[in-house]
Specification:
By secondary structure, the protein is α+β, with helices and mostly antiparallel strands. It contains four helices and eight strands. Among the domains are: 11-54, no CATH class; 117-203. Helix 1 runs antiparallel to helix 2 (30-40). It has a four-stranded antiparallel sheet with strand order 4-1-6-7, with no helix packed on it. Keywords: Membrane, Transmembrane, Transmembrane helix. The chain crosses the membrane at residues 71-93.
Length: 205
C-alpha cells in the first residue's frame, strides 16, 4: 500500500477497507483518508468486469482478438470455390437423361350389367306377369293354381315385380289404378280404378 500498489492486497476496494480500519485504530475521521485516496490514488471508474477482476472475483478479462482480414478473405474464397464446384456437379448431373418406367396398366373388361326382371326372356311354357307401380303404390298378393302364396308385399311407386308359374297365377291388387300389367310380354291395359281392389287370374295356355 505504501507503494500505491493495491493489487497484492485485494485491489482498491480492499484498500479503502484497510484505510477505514487504520482510521478507526488512530481514531481519525475515515473520510479524510478516503478523500486523499480518491484524489491521489484512485483510478477512474472502470467497467464492472475489470473491478471484479481486480478483486479476484473473476479471471482477468482479455480483449477479444481481432480476426485478420486475410483469414476472412481466405474463408470467403474457399466458400466460393465450394459453391462453384457444387454448381458444376449439379449441372453435369442434370444433363443426364432420366428414364422413368411407367407401371403397366391392365385394362379390365367392363362388367356387364345384370339384366333386370323385365329384360329377362319370357318362357313360352309358363305364365309370366310383370306388375309395375307406375302411377302409385299398391299392395299385391300372388298365388299359384294350388293356392300357395308366391308373393306378398307392397310395391312403392316406381317399383316393379315379375312373377312366373308353369300353370297359373292368381293376383289380388290393392290399387288397380296405380299399376300396369303385362302378361307374357303383352300389355293388358287398365285393370281398374284408383283405390280399387281387383282379383285377376292368368293361365299358361
Amino acid at each position: 500500500m505504501e507503494d500505491d500498489n493495491f493489487k497484492k492486497c485485494g485491489g482498491e476496494t480492499y484498500a479503502r477497507g484497510h484505510l477505514r480500519n487504520i482510521a478507526t485504530k488512530l481514531q481519525i475521521d475515515e473520510r479524510i483518508f478516503l478523500d486523499i485516496f480518491e484524489i491521489e490514488v484512485a483510478a477512474p471508474v472502470k467497467p464492472i468486469r475489470e473491478l471484479l477482476s481486480e478483486n479476484n472475483v473473476t479471471d482477468p478479462y482479455q480483449e477479444p482478438k481481432n480476426v485478420s482480414w486475410k483469414a476472412l478473405a481466405a474463408g470467403s474464397l474457399a466458400a466460393l470455390l465450394l459453391f462453384g464446384l457444387a454448381q458444376v456437379i449439379f449441372s453435369i448431373a442434370s444433363d443426364d437423361p432420366v428414364i422413368t418406367t411407367l407401371p403397366s396398366v391392365k385394362v379390365s373388361e367392363s362388367a356387364k350389367p345384370e339384366p333386370t326382371e323385365s329384360a329377362r326372356p319370357i318362357s313360352a311354357d309358363a305364365v309370366t306377369i310383370d306388375i309395375r307401380a307406375t302411377r302409385g303404390a299398391s299392395w299385391l298378393y300372388a298365388f299359384d293354381k294350388e293356392g300357395t302364396q308366391v308373393f306378398s308385399g307392397l310395391l312403392s311407386k316406381g317399383d316393379s315385380k315379375r312373377l312366373s308359374d308353369p300353370k297359373q297365377l292368381n293376383l289380388r291388387v290393392g290399387n288397380a289404378g296405380g299399376v300396369d300389367i303385362s302378361v307374357n310380354g303383352k300389355e293388358v291395359g287398365s285393370i281398374g280404378a284408383d283405390g280399387e281392389v281387383v282379383n285377376l287370374t292368368y293361365n299358361a295356355d
